[in-house]
Amino acid sequence: SVDILEVVVAIALIRYNRIKIRELSNASLVDKFRNRQTLRSIEQTLPVAVIHLVSFSIQYGNFVACVQNNDTTPYYCAICAAVFLVIMIREEREKRRELEGISSSSSEAIGEEYFQSLQQQWSTPSLANVNQERNKSQGRRISPV
Length: 145
Fold this sequence. Notes:
Number of domains: 1
Helix content: over 70%
Structural class: mainly alpha
Distance between the termini: 87 Å
Radius of gyration: 32 Å
Number of helices: 4
Strand content: under 5%
């Protein structure tokens, strides 16, 4: 019964956090980050909770088909390890995809800003030329350094 409650609460928390994330469109980045991390961690633990529920229900329940093979612990350990591996690979791919999206958009913005500043520098007269023209108009002669 505790395992069933754990799965039900995890599903309820996932739904609650998804709704909360939609509502936090104008909230601070700290709140958005906190809710997204909470949602990710709950989503990662849910498959293991379901496997735990099924495995121990079979082992300690009175299932006629499973009476001959009552020890589910080795299967539980192997399946949980495989699930953890799949979760880790999926999270790594998701992080890499998010970082590539951030880096490509930020590098494009940085490049655009760089070329705009170069254009502005080339289109305006340099400070040395402005000073030389001012000195010529005032009749001063300044020797180069």
